[in-house]
Amino acid sequence: MGLRVLAAMSGGVDSAVAAARAAEAGHDVTGVHLALSANPQSYRTGARGCCTVEDARDARRAADVIGIPFYIWDMAERFARDVVDDFVSEYAAGRTPNPCVRCNEKIKFAAVLDRALALGFDAVVTGHHARLSDGVLRRSVDAGKDQSYVLAVLTGKQLGHAMFPLGDSTKAQVRAEAAARGLSVADKPDSHDICFIADGDTRAFLAERLGAAEGPVIDALSGEVVGGHQGAYGYTIGQRRGLALDRPSADGRPRYVLSIEPVSNTVTVGPREALKVGSITCARPVWNGPVAAPVEPRACTVQLRAHGEVYGCRAQLTGDTLHVELGTPATGVAPGQTAVLYDGDTVIGSATISAAA
Q1: Quick one: average pLDDT of 313-340?
Q2: Less Cβ around it within 10 Å: N or C end of the chain?
């Protein structure tokens, strides 16, 4: 007997095919599009977003083709508070957030799932590229499109009410299936940018909300002021371009952002080798895998950014703090990013990076 499921339909090809597969599997499917912007024209268009008028129309057309009921839920206020405001405040605090992680955590699998369960639905279906079996989250068969990283913040209970029908298919297979089903979004391009920053200029977006705040750029090796900035929030750890330094380094090599200090409004730069870290401390751990939390050191792998490199490591939980010792040094590790632990292709858990050394 099929389940009563709610299909979150962004207006893109992935969520449309996921909804179609759920319906074909015999589930009682209702489509819902999340209106995430109070002013949809200000959000990114022409690609897979979540929140534009164009996306809402594409989602409705897909639901009509599939033959399922369709509704639009206004989540703009919740999205602004839990994702956009969080994004701004994290940067203001010198951290580097991932808004897609936060959206999955706070919107798609908190606000939406809570409402779906209250309305009598059994599960929420999305078009994420990840595999889910018996509540265990695993990587997609399409490594290039795998989204298990941005889903790893979900709790075991949330995963127990989730369905990801696309995990066993490549993106090319999903597009071909969409075309065969007569879905007009079959060739709609993916988006790789933040949906609520229409022009992709994160620094300008933050400056508009946080204001200009002049401060120094300091060379880590010499201790000298080598430039200035209009707001430390406009920089990220590992950044090389756009530093606008007044003088080159003594050895002529490029300099990278090594640290961001919001209290003193200071950006520190230095050589690439100074970016290397071997030890990471993380807060707010979530254990959602098939193995217990590692109260003793556990050998596993860790991914530190979406579609980023995977590192061998030893992880250990002490109280509410996760310590990760990397087998090989990583670069560009910034507080605020998510660290996701894997056993092979299976997610063990996740935590938010608070410090690295």
Answers
A1: 97
A2: N
